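Notebook entry, structure prediction.
Reason for the run: the old model in the group folder had no record of what sequence produced it. Starting over properly, with the input documented here first.
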Amino acid sequence: MAATVLEARRLVRLSLLVMRFILLAALVLIAAPVVGQEREVPYWASVKAETLNLRAGPGRDYPVRWIYHRVGLPLKVIRVHEGWRLVQDPAGDEGWVTANLLSKERGGIVIGKGLAAIRAKPSDGAQTRWNAEPGVVGEIEDCEAGWCEIDIGGRRGFIRADRLWGSAEL
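New structure, fully documented this time:
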């Protein structure tokens, strides 16, 4: 009988240990996305959802002002409120979006008049690989000395930073 009591106590201790582990793992999983979203503002983000609603306030009860359908569209995050981000789009419009539909990947959109040369190297004298029209969206790899390395649909090259909204250091 003493053996079964000891065995029962060991089983209870093991069960408590397993429950503590599960609780700790759950807390880590819940806290990780929140910690990952806490960044110093302003910062660049991009649209990661096929559809993103820009709302008048930080919550689903606020009216939708715009609906974006451009994955990779750059947005400037200017304020954080719980799971919501106040953003500014390339046209200067501001509104609130849910944080989980934003990507930390830095996007850029070609701006200005006329075609923008995408070059092989960060230099006006470098070979032009192709030209991009205003409105073309790509992923910014790095910006340095007035040039940004960009990936547009799997094609990489360099574009002058002044032809790209999303290239400014924040």
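Summary: Residues 2-37 form the longest helix (36 residues).
The old model has been moved to the deprecated folder.
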